[in-house]
């Protein structure tokens, strides 16, 4: 870059950015439920008087604008630091799960400590963020951290902490009242306290970032080069992560977790050709403020009623496509297929394989009987047996046949469908990380279901149709992107993160716009078998079980053939693209049937096929049946636990699955660090 070109770009970046920020601030200050003339805004800022309009500007709109500048700048600088120190262009506080860890820590403290404001809130958020960063970095392989594994670990950690957070919000609704909007990210300020609290900390973090800028320039050249030039690499890494998490924690403690700003702003600056960190940091701060203020302006344009759409949902709405673009633009050796070895299977002894299906079938029957025998009075095995087969107790018999049995069968059928969907996706996409939730199909189905349920006063009878349409739209997007990415397995997993984030943003916006009760919203979105009856089983699940699942079994040999690789499949006479498309469509429809019934339950389609491969091997003839049984058993166990762990309260089954599945998945990732990828 020539000197003149560099100066021109600097003027455009800082001068043009400043002008754009001022323009957005002017629009921002003019937005509100009460219309205020521009002249009144000018007078309120420079010649304040004791008037209602001036107080509105000075104590409501100005603090909101200033905290938007500070939070956006802090998140952008945090993103710069994380991307450099992890050598990962996709790193940010949101993609690495730091936001979710900080948010969970604040919610946990608000329930059990009741002190989450000011210093205590910052400390809690910081500790949660640091622990999350250490966890993700460890799972990704520490010194040999793999960019793909790091983002995937961040995704799973986010899902795990989200499950924990939802659990607390559902059961402690009064203690966490008001945290749903804040948890989605909001710039709403009623006074200057938030700005006064955040300003000195953000200034300290910004100064600290600039002080280590030169060291980061050397670190970017490679750790060996940096060490040779006298840098203490490990110390720089620790200091950088601490500053990044500190800046993130300050923003979380004041405005909640706002994602993707730390991803968008740094890349905008780097696209302009800047590499030196002192310039990148300062420019990112400015453009991070622009992104966040712009998102807040857009949020209030989209919602003219000013019922406060969460700005975090808007940044995700904008940032998720940006993440997808980055992933598509970064197709290189770092995202090669070797990274998918995290969940490889192995062949066990024939003696074990022979009895697996029988054993799982007996377990399924046992769980079913324990489930129908379990209620608020504990496990009543003998009474249930006598009521069913000896007609001793009509009340228990009615309770079993009308309430407990249908919801258990719904759980079993939904688990089978999710597991089969994951089985198809993992095979046809050659990606052991694929399942309906990971690649965005479940999120799309959830969006479709909510649209049909809460937009236009459509009857709830049409919710399944909405789920099917949402899943189909998500499927088309996934397939289009996967085709462009040449179906590279890890690229597809990363793309799924972006698609899921986009769907989650849409869901958050709809929940707020429809004034949906927070607890009921979180329960449905977490996935629940509560109050499911014979109606849901017959209308939504029997058809897919009797029609689609047998079709999957009949074409399972094609799934195994695709799993061998495109060249091998073509050599065996298979039309790869057409087969992959139709099988993926089948998997999406199967998943949509489950989502329409029990909501967005994750991890079943990820874990069940993988455990089946561990038990039988990667291409065993009984893999299909084993996967289906494991999915059904998993969700039935989750249903039983949901009813018994906190009697008389009930935990959504999806949260139980996430609490079990996420640590298991993280353990697998950690174990994979000890073997060759």
With strands numbered from the N-terminus, the spatial order across the biggest sheet is 1-2
Named at the architecture level, the CATH assignment of the largest domain is Orthogonal Bundle
Which structural class best describes the helix and strand composition?
mainly alpha
SSE pattern: HHHHHHHHHHHHHHHEEHHHHHHHHHHHHH
State the domain count: 2
Can you put this structure into words, describing what you see?
- The structure is a single chain.
- The chain is mostly helical and 677 residues long.
- The protein folds into 2 domains: 3-330, ABC transporter involved in vitamin B12 uptake, BtuC (Orthogonal Bundle); 342-672, ABC transporter involved in vitamin B12 uptake, BtuC (Orthogonal Bundle).
- The protein has helices at 3-30, 38-46, 52-86, 98-112, 118-139, 147-171, 179-183, 193-211, 213-220, 223-228, 233-255, 261-271, 277-302, 311-329, 350-372, 381-389, 394-428, 441-454, 463-484, 489-513, 518-526, 534-554, 556-563, 566-571, 576-598, 604-616, 623-644, 653-672; strands spanning 374-375, 378-379.
- Strand 1 (374-375) and strand 2 (378-379) form a beta hairpin.
- Mean pLDDT is 82; it is low at 332-344.
List the keywords:
mainly alpha, ABC transporter involved in vitamin B12 uptake, BtuC, 28 helices
Which helices and strands, and how do they pair?
Layout lengths: L2 H28 L7 H9 L5 H35 L11 H15 L5 H22 L7 H25 L7 H5 L9 H19 L1 H8 L2 H6 L4 H23 L5 H11 L5 H26 L8 H19 L20 H23 L1 E2 L2 E2 L1 H9 L4 H35 L12 H14 L8 H22 L4 H25 L4 H9 L7 H21 L1 H8 L2 H6 L4 H23 L5 H13 L6 H22 L8 H20 L5
Antiparallel strand pairs: 1-2
């Amino acid at each position: 870059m020539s000197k003149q070109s560099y100066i021109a770009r600097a003027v455009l970046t800082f001068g043009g950015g400043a002008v754009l920020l001022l323009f957005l601030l002017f629009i921002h200050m003019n937005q509100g439920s009460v219309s205020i003339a521009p002249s009144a805004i000018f007078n309120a800022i420079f010649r304040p008087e004791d008037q209602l309009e001036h107080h509105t500007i000075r104590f409501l709109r100005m603090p909101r604008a200033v905290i938007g500048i500070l939070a956006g700048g802090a998140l952008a600088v945090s993103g710069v630091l994380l991307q450099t120190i992890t050598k990962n262009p996709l790193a940010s506080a949101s993609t690495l799960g730091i936001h979710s860890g900080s948010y969970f820590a604040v919610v946990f403290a608000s329930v059990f400590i009741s002190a989450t404001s000011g210093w205590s809130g910052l400390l809690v958020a910081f500790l949660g963020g640091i622990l999350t960063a250490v966890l993700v970095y460890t799972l990704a392989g520490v010194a040999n951290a793999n960019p793909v594994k790091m983002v995937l670990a961040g995704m799973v950690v986010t899902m795990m902490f989200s499950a924990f957070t939802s659990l607390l919000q559902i059961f402690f609704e009064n203690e966490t009242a008001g945290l749903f909007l804040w948890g989605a990210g909001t710039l709403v300020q009623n006074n200057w306290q938030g700005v006064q609290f955040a300003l000195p900390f953000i200034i300290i973090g910004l100064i600290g970032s600039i002080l280590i800028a030169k060291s980061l320039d050397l670190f970017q050249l490679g750790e060996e080069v940096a060490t040779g030039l006298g840098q203490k690499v490990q110390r720089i890494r620790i200091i950088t992560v601490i500053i990044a998490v500190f800046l993130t924690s300050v923003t979380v403690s004041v405005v909640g977790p706002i994602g993707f700003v730390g991803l968008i702003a740094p890349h905008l600056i780097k696209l302009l050709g800047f590499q030196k960190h002192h310039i990148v940091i300062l420019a990112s701060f400015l453009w991070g403020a622009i992104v966040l203020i712009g998102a807040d302006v857009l949020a209030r344009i989209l919602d003219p009623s000013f019922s406060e759409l969460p700005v975090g949902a808007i940044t995700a709405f904008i940032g998720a496509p940006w993440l997808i673009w980055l992933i598509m633009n970064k197709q290189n050796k770092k995202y090669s297929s070797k990274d998918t070895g995290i969940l490889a299977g192995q062949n066990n002894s024939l003696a074990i394989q022979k009895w697996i299906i029988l054993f799982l079938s007996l377990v399924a029957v046992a769980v079913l009987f324990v489930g129908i025998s379990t209620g608020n009075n504990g496990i009543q095995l003998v009474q249930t047996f006598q009521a069913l087969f000896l007609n001793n107790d009509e009340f228990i018999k009615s309770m079993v046949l009308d309430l407990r049995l249908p919801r258990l069968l719904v759980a079993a059928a939904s688990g089978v469908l999710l597991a089969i969907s994951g089985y198809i996706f993992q095979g046809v996409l050659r990606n052991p990380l694929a399942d309906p939730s990971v690649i965005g199909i479940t999120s799309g189905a959830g969006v479709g279901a909510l649209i049909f349920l809460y937009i236009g006063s459509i009857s709830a009878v049409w919710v399944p149709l909405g789920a099917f349409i949402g899943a189909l739209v998500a499927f088309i997007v996934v397939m289009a992107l996967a085709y462009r990415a040449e179906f590279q397995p890890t690229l597809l997993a990363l793309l799924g993160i972006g698609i899921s984030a986009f769907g989650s943003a849409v869901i958050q916006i709809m929940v707020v716009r429809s004034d949906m009760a927070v607890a009921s919203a979180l329960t449905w979105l977490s996935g629940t078998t509560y109050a499911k009856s014979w109606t849901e089983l017959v209308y939504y699940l029997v058809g897919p079980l009797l029609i689609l699942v047998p079709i999957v079994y009949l074409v399972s040999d094609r799934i195994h053939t695709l799993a061998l690789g495109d060249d091998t499949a073509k050599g065996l006479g298979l039309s790869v693209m057409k087969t992959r498309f139709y099988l993926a469509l089948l998997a999406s429809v199967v998943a949509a049937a489950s989502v329409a019934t029990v909501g967005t339950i994750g991890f079943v389609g990820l874990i069940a096929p993988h455990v089946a491969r561990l038990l039988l091997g990667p291409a065993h003839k009984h893999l299909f049946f084993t996967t289906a049984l494991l999915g059904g058993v998993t969700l039935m166990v989750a249903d039983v636990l949901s009813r018994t762990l906190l009697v008389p309260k009930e935990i959504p089954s999806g949260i139980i699955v996430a609490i079990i599945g996420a640590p298991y998945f993280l353990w697998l990732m950690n174990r994979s660090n000890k073997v060759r990828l």
